Amino acid sequence: MKEYENALTLWNDWFNNATPQAIDEASMGNTTFDNAIANLVNGATRILDFGCGAGWASVIMAMLSDNQQIVAVDQAPNSINYAIITAKLSQQDGKINFVVADDTYLNNVRESSFDAIFSSNVLDVVPEDITQRMLNGFARVLGNGSKALIMLNPYIDSEYAGKGGFIEFQPNYFQKDGNLRIVNKTDEQWVDTFSRYFNVARIEHFNFEGENTSRPRRLFTLVK
User: Fold this and answer.
1) What superfamily does domain 2-12+28-223 belong to in CATH?
2) The whole model's pTM is what?
């Protein structure tokens, strides 16, 4: 899908031009999110941050415990370069192993080798076949009884899409300036997707400071 390939280039270029900054505390300033990620980390010793982007979640998880190993994966080389610097500036680089890889990385990981997975704004910005491959991979590499925490972008309604310049080029797929920006699903549709691989234990909605509260982010806690 050309729109997806365009988006990969867009974000890799964005990270090439962005300046990493230190993360000073294990908080994103929102109680719902902070509690969810703390619960994910609690008791976990090997954590996968898949689609780590800037690396902020890996750094926060590293700050929350001294007894864990974090593997942070992203297919954008400039994203990983950015995340490595972020971790160093935050004095957490010794706890995180950064890997440049796409979803095929999961094929080479030993079964049940992680006891927690975090993924933010990844599954809803890739084509559906890749989403299914990722979820299948998550289920394979996650230990029985362990949890995955999935953060997704807000649902886009037609009014917001029009104002924001998002164009639906096929059902549920929205692009902007030729770049795939979101695969738009309701909470119920995501539950149906996740339930093929996991038990959906919790759905939470929240916003980071300054965001439009009428368009909440989504947090899904999944249990294998």
Assistant:
1) Vaccinia Virus protein VP39 (3.40.50.150)
2) 0.96
